[in-house]
Design a protein that fits this description.
single chain, DUF3955 domain-containing protein
Length: about 55
């Protein structure tokens, strides 16, 4: 969405200008989503393990 708002352009010399700074931001978002997912899975695993220990 941000790429379409910023857009790309071609200058008078024929050089294409694109917002390549958005690539690392996208990779950081993917990394953040992966870490968050792993933390959620770990929390769920720990809760299940704790409930099994309480029932035994």
């Amino acid at each position: 969405m941000t790429f379409s708002l910023i857009g790309s352009s071609v200058d008078d010399a024929g050089m294409l200008h694109e917002p390549f700074a958005l690539l690392p931001i996208g990779y950081l978002m993917l990394l953040a989503a992966g870490v968050t997912g792993l933390l959620c899975l770990f929390g769920r695993w720990r809760a299940v393990r704790r409930s099994k220990l309480e029932h035994d």
